[in-house]
Design a protein that fits this description.
Helix content: 55-70%
Number of strands: 1
Radius of gyration: 14 Å
């Protein structure tokens, strides 16, 4: 685990221990950023766990600012992130017709 990921996870744990609510957009954003760090360091299991927690928050509270959602959306679009399985709760883009 990288030092940056350790700091992110410590911050997430602190927010949770201080009573952050499940769909807190700041917490969801932090989880998505930590998920991207975990994936970059090769920890796919942690990346999926963090990405899933972020997605669940945005499903519960879909109308938050794109600022909060962008890291989660970016993580979900990473090629080959979790094999050929579309992550639970991920939005499927429809092809545009020309």
């Amino acid at each position: 685990m990288t030092e940056g990921l350790r700091h992110l996870e410590a911050g997430i744990a602190a927010r949770v221990s201080h009573g952050s609510y499940r769909a807190d957009p700041e917490l969801a954003r932090a989880r998505a950023v930590a998920g991207a760090c975990a994936l970059a360091s090769g920890d796919r299991k942690s990346a999926e766990r963090l990405a899933q927690a972020a997605r669940e928050a945005f499903v519960e509270q879909p109308d938050v600012s794109p600022y909060f959602k962008r890291p989660s959306e970016t993580l979900d679009r990473r090629p080959g992130r979790f094999g050929n399985v579309k992550p639970k709760g991920a939005v499927v883009d429809s092809p545009r017709s020309h």
